[in-house]
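Review box. Two proteins, two foldings.
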Amino acid sequence: MPLGRPELLSSPRAVPRRRLLALTLLPAVTGCATILRLDAPPPGVAIDLPVLGIPNARFWPDGPPEALRREAALMLARQRARSAGPLPPANFLALSGGGDNGAYGAGLITGWTATGTRPEFDIVTGISAGALIAPFAFLGPEYDPALRTVFTEVARPDILLLRHIPLALLFNVALADTSPLYRLIAQQADERMLAAIAREYARGRLLLIGTTNLDLQRPVVWNIGAIAASGHPQALGLFRRILLASASIPGAFPPVLIDVQYHGHPYQEMHVDGGAATQVFLYPPALYARNLADPHAEPRQRTVWVVRNGRLDVEGMSVNRGLFTIASRSIATLLHFSGVGDISRIFLIAQRDGLAFRLSYIGSNFTAERREPFDQAYMRALFEYGAHKMLSGEAWVEAPPATGTLRATADRAVIR
């Protein structure tokens, strides 16, 4: 990164020594490699750019549904090709975001295996923490030990490194460095996992991960199976970056840049947590699942299982008049009811399209305290709570319940 005009830097009189030293150190302090980026592709063409040359690598759920409809039809065609008779019941799993609360969904999945009733999912979708669970849930019980490890054997240093806040606010794109999280993702999302996802995609199953394209302010749904099946040498790297992007909370975690090309010129897209656009997703309302069914076949039972890695109740407390308190409380309220609205939308789509609906969430009876983000003891307790809830037969409700107000607890009180 250039520091200035060469003639100015060549003269000690032109630039005092102290100032020259500051200019010399500036790139190291600011981390200019993390701030600078290539231009985003022109908005008018960005949605049609095939990442890694894979035409169905991703979809835009807020746009026309034709591409997603073609992918769903292809999925059903593959299922029929390997089925000698009527297709078995279909099961769709939607995993929400939730940060360290993702331990709930991870425990739920492993508890589901222990009950002997866990189905093979035709479609698995994930956002943020749900995106980190999704590949394990998609690939089946064989991956339960790894899922347990990811959500019970890690602590905050295994996820992020907090920066010095004043410097981070001045010179960085985020408050934390997520290189530990990327290393964790790279350990688990390896060639073996990618090959397994490709095999399941060929069988007619979909793994979909959501991110948010900040340049376009639009949600993106990544077709991980198509990426895995492409055989592209950069497919694994893209898979890992999608998982990292989906979990990258804006401001807290650095955004992830995705390389694309247009007319031979390189560009970069900025992607962050899928929760910036939606907390949990299945398929867009414009796509009518009932229209994909074979009219000559017997009706197929279909169930959508929605896992909210968070609570549905809200907390009552006395909010002081501090700027930070008011802002953080308002953002928390916004995100909470955004998630509640996403669940309601999936429920209404299920009602319209004839899908059975099941919802699981963290109940008010879970009272373990969180001492810090990604507190290992808290995550272990939540993992066991999710597993026990499944084993006890209390995991699912058939409609979004009414929510109440609880007294704030130590682990969830707003910072004052």
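Next protein.
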Amino acid sequence: MEILLDTANIERIESLQNVLPLKGITTNPSILKKEGEIDFFKHLRKIRNIIGLEQTLHVQVTATTAEKMIKEAQAIREGIDPSVYIKIPVTYEGLKAIKALKKQGVNITATAIYTKLQGFLAIAANADYLAPYYNRMENLGINAESVMSSLQREIERTNSQSKLLGASYKTIEQINGTFDAGAQAITVSPELIEQLLLSNTIVQAVEDFQEDWKVIHGEQSIDDLFHKRHNI
């Protein structure tokens, strides 16, 4: 299982690096917009410095023609580093760009996937990651888990090296559905992770345990008891 953060917020990345077993960071123009008028390359290099080369960094092109997508991919790799995964939407022009860039050994994340056929084509084009939009599919009445399952079966059937990177989530149940479908990875917003780990039910359970401990041991901690027992 790979967990990636769908954010470009430096503080959130630094904070959650100490909490989660992160495998990388994904960004897109909408996510970068939230950070205001940043220096594009400087900001992304800073993220790379935080996560290191052992984690993946995914950066999306903005062009709509294959020729310009390829140029932007080259600029991103030169402006940040060659290990970056270039996010390219699975469109007519996008597939053209993916095919050309894979021949050059470029890391590719095929994104904006809403249908099985888009995913099948991305797998055939040897994209490293496929990013189906779970919540957006559900909003369109598409069975997102079914799409995920079909794509995973195609990866296994063809012995492809592609990985499913589920994206676009609004609920924890959608994430569960992604892993139930066999996906290897998800990219999720910091807000959703925090919502899960700081939920009232979890907090209440912890408080209940603390109260039960105090009934017997008062304000003494486990550490206090250990030091008292060993006269430390």
